């Protein structure tokens, strides 16, 4: 059974259609990258999966259950944004613990989850710091830590590295991939960066102007692009 299913998913803002009908089955443990130029509808699609935007028509299912009417907090997903949105007045520990506190977990359970995530991300030494005392890369790790402690079925990333400088971006890309090898959590990752997409993805969804151009592995898309757009965008020789 697919972990996330999109069936005929469309979105319009007022009279303007923005997503023209997306069908895709995302398997448990897959790392899927949604890639396409700015404005093609990547964030809108991701926000619909998160429940931050309603679908105009079609169905989104997570773990076999249609979630169109399910609140974001009850969807068993965690989202990592490009602006890390950490609480400036809270320590790293408190930032990571906050969502768990709201969910009513015990102090001990929270400590255990935060320590585990901090270990995975190697930020144990930063737990008492405030966000302003962290570098961009460290903040990004804390943002991922906040997602990991929730132990979601699906991670959603919206261009999480786009505020980092080029060198750090490459480094974090490797770390995100490693994190995925460790946790094996189904991940849906949005970027406009072709290289980032090709390095991270098990499969890519290439979007253009609200439509899916092609879905496939990096090799398939590179060697056998379905459209001129895919060939041009991914830079293959077709
Ligand atoms: P991407 O993330 O690929 O850059 P978006 O999903 O943000 O693209 O946007 C896709 C299209 O939808 C754009 O034309 C954008 O202007 C439009 N759009 C996004 N959000 C809204 C909104 N809340 N109201 C109206 N139009 C929107
Ligand atoms: Mg976007």
From TrEMBL:
GO biological process: carbohydrate transport; glycerol-3-phosphate transmembrane transport; glycerophosphodiester transmembrane transport
Keywords associated with the record: ATP-binding, Cell inner membrane, Cell membrane, Membrane, Nucleotide-binding, Sugar transport, Translocase, Transport
Residue ranges occupied by any ABC transporter domain in the UniProt entry: 4-234
GO cellular component, one term: ATP-binding cassette (ABC) transporter complex, substrate-binding subunit-containing
GO molecular function, one term: ATP binding
Protein family membership: Belongs to the ABC transporter superfamily.
Protein name stated in the entry: sn-glycerol 3-phosphate transport system ATP-binding protein
